[in-house]
């Protein structure tokens, strides 16, 4: 196999792994956010044992933060990949999306660090592996967006 095809295959695998990471992180954050925002506290306590030990406003605000994080990761990725290229809105919107995605991924990662510390403090170590997985995937998304932004700037400067 030629070097060109190996590079092409590696690039496709990397893109697919990024899509998978974005899909998983955004789905989990949106699902947990909807549960925290809309479900009654008594029912939520069966899924999230810590929910009944905090005020309702705190749990609802965590739901809003989770939904914002899930949308902040999903929407820029989807819009950048499909929608905006079709409508030629590159100069108006597209250049801001990688920043939003990077900030959302970093916010999700920092929330997971706090969640890991909290769950270990209250004696719920069974939840920590999910938090570690979300932390790893969020950092993967963040680092990928930073690398793409750097390489995009380098490519733009090289073409001038």
UniProtKB/TrEMBL annotation:
Residues spanning the membrane: 20-42, 62-88, 100-121, 127-144
**Topology in the lipid bilayer:** Multi-pass membrane protein
Top-rank taxon of the source lineage equals: Bacteria
Keywords tagged on the record: Membrane, Transmembrane, Transmembrane helix
Compartments annotated for it: namely:
Membrane
- UniProt main location, coarse: membrane
Q: Does the keyword Transmembrane apply?
A: yes
Spell out the GO cellular component terms annotated for this protein, sorted alphabetically and separated by semicolons: membrane
Query: Per its record, how is this protein called by name?
Result: DoxX-like protein
Q: Which organism is it from?
A: Marinobacterium mangrovicola
